[in-house]
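This part of the workshop introduces the protein records we will be handling. An example says more than a description, so a record of this kind follows:
>
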Amino acid sequence: MEKLQKYEFNATQLFRVSDTAVLSTISESSDSYPFGSFTTYSSNINRELIIYASDLAEHTKNILSDTRSCVTIFSLASGGDKQASSRLSLIGDFSKVEANDHDKYANRFVKFLPKSAAYSLMHGFNFYKLSIIKARWIGGFGEIAWLDTTNWISQIPKWAKNEQSMIDHMNQDHKNVVISALHKNFSIKDKKAEIFSMCTDGYYIKSNKKAYFIPFAMPCHTEKAIRGELIKQANDNRSFEL
């Protein structure tokens, strides 16, 4: 794997497994100084980043005034030098999810952050999506790069409308592929494990109420590409079948 491909693979892993970040916006009330805040997020089937924000939040007011934003995701290194921790900064523009797309984004977000469903009972919460234009990766000392934005600004794939049928097919007819992937990647033996979500970069398995991300070697924008990756995983993981 080439160096930049490796960086993107590692960055995508962090992006897909995390759900908290620092959100930087342009302050509407403080002379356009940068304003940083904590946020939870979910990734979409493509690499859109989704937040669920209150109209009362300062960062929401900033986004409505100036869409330019940066979201920084990080994973602190356990022990040792925290400067060697991985982090990913995604620069782009936030836009409010339109009413006709609300349920689609809500279902995706709640799937990964179920406690957020309670916010829907309150007034003034809306979904916003970050359209990414630049991605900066730091994986530690010497592992630093601006990533190729090709896959970060891609459209939602055509196979998205078939996501649930693809999931059902894997869970019903190819359970051994799911179980062996979980066993190989996380050393977990669970015959009841099931896929519960997919994206262009891999899929999520639920086991004992916890989610585990299984990456694809390359982004998959077509059903054919996904089938190819799953077949490859089935062959590579055969010795991990239960």
Notes: Helices lie at 3-17, 58-65, 102-112, 163-173, 175-186, 223-236. The two ends are 30 Å apart (CA to CA).
